[in-house]
Design brief:
The complex is a heterodimer of chains A (about 750) and B (about 200). Chain A is α+β, with helices and mostly antiparallel strands and about 750 residues long. Helix content of chain A is about 65%, strand content about 10%. Chain B is built from 5 helices and 6 strands, in the order αβββααβββαα. In chain B, α2 runs antiparallel to α3. At the A-B interface, α18 of A face α2 of B.
Chain lengths: ~750, ~200
């Protein structure tokens, strides 16, 4: 270290600069993920099942454009729908557009069932609106997807081509559609767009926006906080230098590992900036508080570094352990976040422990300890906490335990819910459009179910048709379901047309059923039919449109529908659930389960690390209490305020545990060093000497985390907000509960000794 | 004794099979014999991608035959289309009306033979129509057939005559041209090279 602080300073800085330039080059090349792939878990069976579904029925990622028009079924409204349909059909990457203007109905013709347009030209026909209304009344299946029940909103279903490897064409389509939506229109006419592809597009755009906003904001906030506390350029530049180097190295490594930023790892830059401050803050605070004048500048730095190396290393290690425990999660985005946050923490330890001393070695030590007004206030507050904890340890334990018990009571109210639409702020176009479509047209989410016979036989028998119809009715009876797309309504229309009857009905007998499937096989609209039933009729799709609900509702709904399917189809059939939305619901449940494992792992590893550091069961136990309490409080707060456990908030416990335990380690390490038999005195000394650094470090961490509140996604906003809150409550616990426990431990030892 | 008991049943079965069958008069029977048919040209209808059958131009001895082989699950639809075209080509013509009536009767007869209570592996209904012009003879034959397929090539293995019509020779000759023109997607003037000089 002495060499580093003297002759090694310049070579060290040269190597550091070279490495930083290398990683900066790669960090600048990080792309933003455009397909949200890393937010899906890597379950092999799930992926294979979804791939099979898409191979048979095509993608379930259609877009839905809604057109609100005061005279929808009059000439103006129908002309607009026709024009939009034709225009969107021509966009590159759009396979087909289905709307009222090209929708077909099945009618009785000379030779039986035949197709006829729902809207038959000429559009100038004054009786057209009534004719269309009659068609819609005769074909209730058209209502919901193509037209609202009040006939004021029309839906255009936009089927996008599947172009593997091309990540840009979907974005181009959505940009074009948003351009069409933004065009000026007559009074009362408005357009709305939703769909999974829009969601992916907007998430990518928000990540890029957040990167542009959060990074500079984090730098500004940290610089201001450091300037307020240290009141000199050194106290700002050195920690920011460590932060910058750590962030650049970690992000460069992230890019070199082949990853792209996603909704979760988009938080990495600001989180890294915050995490990498702790070592610098402790070193600079120690350097500034060191005794004045007696020793030279190198000795002064070494005197600060030596006692801090061990606790700082353990703090970094426990923080890294907390983040690394996220590796147990099956969602790649969370794993990437955990791994690279852990890497960043360990890098920041290495960089902080070298760059800060080297930086300090260029400076003259201060001639007097910093004593600003805010420092005096902080010291008074700290002295008060030390006094309270020492004088009334049982009272402190009682109050904090009461809050913990109250929090635990709210814990069962925490709802496991991932709501992709409500992840976005209410002003976001996707949020607004989706809820409009959901309220006026049809459910914006879809659950997919596939039914097959176990023996592989086609589903064209009368028995199979009746079972499919029973399943369809059972689904329609479920709350939150707005419609079911399947082959059953088509069979009903065919039967009505073939039998020249007036009512929709299923095929009456085996021959009718078989003939209906013959007609389907020979029908010209094979594209549409293939979206509902496999070409060989061996598997049938049930596309269940569901209101814009979160996974807390969707997951049990899917399970209930599956149970209906298995009951109604019987043992000879296989019914399976699939689709993008279904897997989001499944992933949400898996994520929470994984977080429980991750948290358990983090606690175990942190206990082992603290146990290794203090080599005392009692001290290890005491160290755990002030760290588990704030996490329980945060859980209770989520339950009390209805904050959902989702992709972002599920990471809080594991991530924050490693951070909050740092203060305890610093506190207890210092306490054990200054303890000479009088716990009260040791506590007052400890609080006075390392309290300001802990306070400053926590304020910086909290404000750094809260920068994330300016992000675009609610899970990351909640992650930032609650992580910051947990840091505050953890500091309170460290300043009150830890010393109170230490006093009580000392009394117990004294009693045992007596 | 056992054979004697089975006889009535055998008669019953034979009787039901023979009920719709047509027997060709002796003067026409040779022109229905396909043993030495020579295929001049053929085309899938309505197209090779979406075929419901095919139209063949044949030489059967000195006769020119335009044979339509329909093999489709939706025979009633195809017959409906033929009916539309026929009535459009021959408005008010009694020969056309009789032909359409016979065609629909044969279609129903073939449809009725499909099992009603189970799904068979091949639900295609197979119907043949021959427009035959030979020296001094012009007639139309309709019936059911069985076939074998190899590499998308259809080979008729048996035919059953279910209806026989003897309309005016002009009707038969004109329909030969109309069917050829429609099936091969060629103008009426381009039909002659395919059909050759009609007897």
């Amino acid at each position: 270290m002495t060499w580093l602080l003297t002759r090694g300073r310049v070579p060290f800085l040269c190597v550091l600069l070279a490495l930083t330039a290398f990683f900066a080059f790669h960090a600048a090349q990080i792309d933003v993920e455009t397909n949200n792939e890393s937010l899906n878990t890597q379950e092999t069976e799930q992926t294979a099942s979804y791939d099979r579904f898409k191979a048979t029925f095509g993608s379930d990622e259609d877009l839905l454009l809604a057109v609100a028009h005061p005279q929808l079924l009059a000439r103006q409204g129908l002309e607009l729908i026709g024009a939009l349909t034709a225009r969107i059909n021509k966009l590159d990457g759009v396979h087909r557009v289905f709307s009222l203007s090209n929708a077909q109905q099945i009618v009785s013709g000379e030779s039986g069932a035949e197709m006829a347009p729902v809207v038959a030209p000429p559009l100038a026909d004054p009786a057209l609106a009534n004719k269309v209304l009659a068609v819609l009344d005769r074909n209730p299946d058209l209502t919901g997807l193509f037209v609202s029940p009040d006939r004021r909103v029309a839906g255009l279903l936009i089927e996008i081509e599947d172009r593997p490897g091309d990540e840009r064409y979907r974005a181009a389509i959505i940009d074009d559609l948003r351009g069409i939506i933004a065009e000026p229109r007559a009074d009362g006419v408005s357009l709305y767009l939703t769909g999974i592809a829009v969601q992916k597009h907007d998430v990518s755009a928000f990540i890029e926006h957040d990167q542009r906003l959060l990074m500079p904001l984090a730098v500004v906030v940290l610089a201001i906080m450091l300037a307020v506390f240290f009141r000199n350029a050194l106290g700002v530049l050195l920690p920011l230098g460590v932060t910058g180097v750590t962030s650049v190295w970690t992000l460069g490594a992230y890019q070199l590992a082949g990853f792209e930023l996603n909704a979760i790892t988009g938080l990495l830059p600001p989180v890294l900036m915050v995490l990498s401050l702790a070592v610098s803050v402790h070193l600079i605070q120690g350097w500034m508080d060191a005794p004045v004048g007696a020793i030279d500048r190198v000795e002064r730095i070494l005197g600060v570094v030596r006692p801090l190396v061990f606790p700082c290393f353990f703090c970094s290690l426990t923080t890294a352990i907390g983040f690394a425990s996220l590796l147990t999660c099956s969602m790649p985005a969370v794993r990437q976040f955990g791994v690279f946050a852990a890497l960043g923490v360990m890098l920041s330890f290495g960089v902080g422990m070298t760059l800060v001393p080297v930086g300090l070695s260029f400076l003259e030590p201060p001639t007097a300890a910093l004593r600003s007004p805010q420092h005096r206030l902080i010291r008074r507050l700290l002295a008060g906490s030390a006094r309270t904890a020492s004088d009334h340890p049982w009272g402190v334990i009682a109050v904090f335990s009461a809050v913990t018990v109250a929090s635990l009571a709210f814990l069962p109210f925490v709802n496991n819910n991932t709501d992709l639409v409500r992840f976005l702020k209410s002003a976001a176009p996707l949020h607004r459009d989706t809820l409009f479509i959901d309220a006026n047209l049809t459910g914006s989410n879809t659950l997919e179910f596939v039914a097959e016979r176990r023996d592989g036989a086609p589903l064209s028998s009368l028995d199979a048709v009746r079972r499919m119809a029973a399943f369809e009715q059972a689904i329609l009876g479920r709350e939150h379901v707005t419609g079911v797309g399947s082959i059953v309504p088509v069979l009903r229309q065919l039967q009505r047309a073939e039998s020249r009857g007036g009512e929709l009905a299923l095929p009456a007998n085996e021959r009718d059923a078989a003939y209906a499937f013959d007609l389907l096989e020979a029908a010209p609209e094979q594209d549409l039919i293939r979206k509902l039933i496999a070409p060989d009729f061996r598997s049938a799709r049930f596309n269940v449109r569901v209101r814009a609900v979160g996974t807390a509702i969707a997951a049990p709904l899917a399970a209930a529908i599956l149970a209906d399917g298995r009951r109604l189809f019987g043992d000879d059939y296989v019914v399976a659930a699939t689709g993008a939305f279904y897997y989001v619901a499944q992933d949400s449940n898996r994520l929470v389960a994984a977080q429980v494992n991750s948290f358990s792992l983090a606690v175990t590893l942190v206990v082992l690390a603290i146990g290794g550091l203090f080599r005392s069961l009692q001290l290890t136990f005491i160290a755990l209490i002030p760290n588990l309490m704030p996490i329980a409080w945060t859980g209770g707060l989520m339950g009390a305020f209805g904050i959902d456990l989702s992709t972002g908030t599920a990471m809080i416990a594991s991530s924050v545990l490693g951070l909050v335990v740092d203060d305890t380690i610093h506190y207890m390490t210092h306490y054990t060093r200054v303890y000479r038999g009088d716990p009260t005195r040791a506590i007052r000394e400890t609080t006075e000497e390392i309290g300001p650094a802990l306070f400053l470090n926590n304020v910086v961490l909290v404000l750094g985390f809260w920068v994330g509140c300016f992000g675009s996604f609610k899970p990351t906003i909640y992650f930032s907000l609650l992580s910051g809150l947990t840091m505050i409550t953890a500091l309170l616990c460290d300043l009150y509960v830890t010393p109170a426990c230490l006093v009580l431990l000392n009394r117990r030892r004294a009693t045992v000794a007596a | 004794m056992r054979a004697a008991r089975l006889l009535p049943i055998l008669f019953l079965v034979w009787g039901s099979a023979a009920r719709g069958q047509e027997v060709a008069p002796p003067q026409l029977a040779p022109w229905l014999d396909t043993a030495n048919d020579q295929i001049v040209e053929r085309a899938y209808v309505p197209s090779a991608e979406n075929k419901v059958g095919e139209v063949r131009i044949l030489r059967r001895g000195r006769a020119t035959v335009v044979e339509t082989l329909l093999y489709t699950k939706v025979l009633s639809r195809v017959v409906g289309e033929i009916r539309k075209k026929e009535l459009a080509n021959w408005p008010g013509n009694s020969d056309a009306a009789r032909y359409v009536e016979a065609l629909e009767r044969v279609q129903k007869q073939i449809w009725s033979r499909l099992p009603t209570n189970q799904r068979v592996s091949d639900r295609r209904q197979k119907l043949w129509i021959d427009f035959v012009v030979a020296p001094g003879i012009a007639f139309v034959g309709l019936g059911a057939f069985e076939m074998k397929e190899s590499h998308a090539e259809v080979r008729v293995v048996s035919r059953e005559l279910l209806a026989l019509l003897e309309p005016s020779p002009e009707y038969v000759r004109r329909n030969l041209r109309l069917i050829t023109s429609d099936a091969f997607h060629i103008a009426d003037t381009a039909v002659d090279p395919l059909l050759g000089p009609l007897p």
